[in-house]
Design a protein that fits this description.
single chain, 177 residues, mainly beta, 3 helices, binds thymidine-5'-diphosphate
Length: 177
């Protein structure tokens, strides 16, 4: 299967070296975190949350409570699975939505852009969650075989909350500063 066409953001991150040397670029690229450590990364758009872990020789357990382990009340849960190799998801922003993204199985990358900075996270542990605040453009890519991406969301599904157009997102993100 061929990959989806890349958004301007993903394309820009692929051209990091060029973007960094271009004086008119609004993107300051932040290198990926070490996938084994999931420390918070430089641009500070998304935040890695360490979820509670109950180790057990029979198999480990992790739990998530709304308003306790995530900074919002959970109104919706959805998950991505059976993602074909080379496919990318996301490619949009949200006006008001908070989300927590967890790699329940396998691994994938998430690129975040707030209109000023961009950063890439690799998620590959089921006890790390990535909190994505409102007014963040996101791209999900590099899904491993068998990856499952769990998303906890602060609101019910509402298409009016989406920015599907990157330039419209950028315009509103800059207006808000
Ligand atoms: P979308 O949010 O664009 O997917 P992703 O960001 O993961 O690539 O949603 C894809 C489709 O699924 C879209 O037509 C709307 C539908 N959808 C729902 O009906 N409910 C939901 O909670 C979500 C997230 C999507």
């Amino acid at each position: 299967m061929s990959a989806a066409p890349y958004s301007p953001l993903a394309q820009r991150l692929r051209e990091t070296a060029t973007a960094m040397s271009r004086p008119d670029s609004h993107l300051r690229f932040v290198p990926p975190i070490d996938p084994g450590s999931a420390t918070e990364n430089g641009a500070g758009i998304g935040k890695i949350i360490h979820l509670p872990r109950v180790p057990d020789p029979r198999g480990n357990l992790t739990f998530i409570e709304g308003d306790r382990h995530v900074p919002f009340d959970i109104k919706r849960v959805y998950y991505l699975y059976d993602v074909p190799g080379g496919a990318s998801r996301g490619g949009h922003g949200h006006r008001n939505l908070h989300q927590l993204v967890v790699a329940m199985a396998g691994s994938f990358d998430i690129i975040l852009d707030n209109g000023e900075d961009a950063e890439r996270f690799t998620l590959n542990r089921s006890y790390y969650g990535l909190h994505i605040p409102p007014m963040t453009w996101r791209e999900l890519e590099n899904f491993s075989s068998g990856a499952v991406c769990l998303v906890l969301a602060s609101e019910h599904y509402d298409e009016r909350d989406y920015f599907r157009d990157y330039d419209a997102f950028l315009h509103e993100a800059r207006e808000g500063r």
